[in-house]
Design a protein that fits this description.
Helices cover 64% and strands 0% of the residues. It has helices spanning 4-11, 19-35, 44-59, 72-88. Helix 3 runs antiparallel to helix 4.
Length: 90
């Protein structure tokens, strides 16, 4: 389970003023991965994918069309691996 504190540590954020935003971004990243077909949520790669998305969205508040440009290849690789594992467990 990905906690706001883990993301804050990764982003080197002190204080609590962004906690609500980070919680929203974490929930949105989980929904994004579910929409991408990821079923398994108990791996470290899943947590990394969420952190990658949250970090990118937090640091790059851009138009939607540009959101994943910098992290897309790494994220796609993780998503494909997680989806393949989900298919094996069915």
């Amino acid at each position: 389970m990905i906690l706001t504190e883990t993301v804050k540590e990764y982003l080197r954020i002190d204080g609590t003023e962004d906690d609500k935003l980070l919680g929203f971004l974490i929930d949105s990243a989980k929904e994004y991965l579910t929409g991408a077909g990821v079923k398994g949520t108990d791996s470290k790669r899943y947590e990394l994918a969420v952190i990658m998305l949250v970090t990118h969205w937090y640091e790059n508040r851009e138009a939607v069309g540009k959101v994943l440009g910098k992290v897309q290849l790494g994220l796609q690789s993780i998503i494909l691996q997680l989806k393949a594992e989900g298919l094996k467990s069915e």
